[in-house]
Predict the structure.
Amino acid sequence: MPSDQSLKPLWKAASKHLGLDPASVGDEDVRKVLSGLNSVVDGIGSLRTHTGSAHGRGRRPYRLQARHARLAIHGSHTLVGFFIETWDERKKAAA
């Protein structure tokens, strides 16, 4: 576990453990998609930090709309679904 347990370091550690680190993937197309997932994690973490009620507001005001919230939610859902499916596959392969 990383000492900083915010979203980005946790994702980095967990994705590396599951072999989802883009640097560890040989196929260039898959590497691009996995790199994009890292960007999604970074963006969702930033939105949470700068606009979420958990941390308060950042220095610059955000004018997010409902569609932005849906984008973050659906992006998170896709990420987590892929992560869980990968974890399940790794467990099956180890058994």
Residues 66-94 form the longest helix (29 residues). DSSP finds three helices and no strands in the chain. The two ends are 24 Å apart (CA to CA).
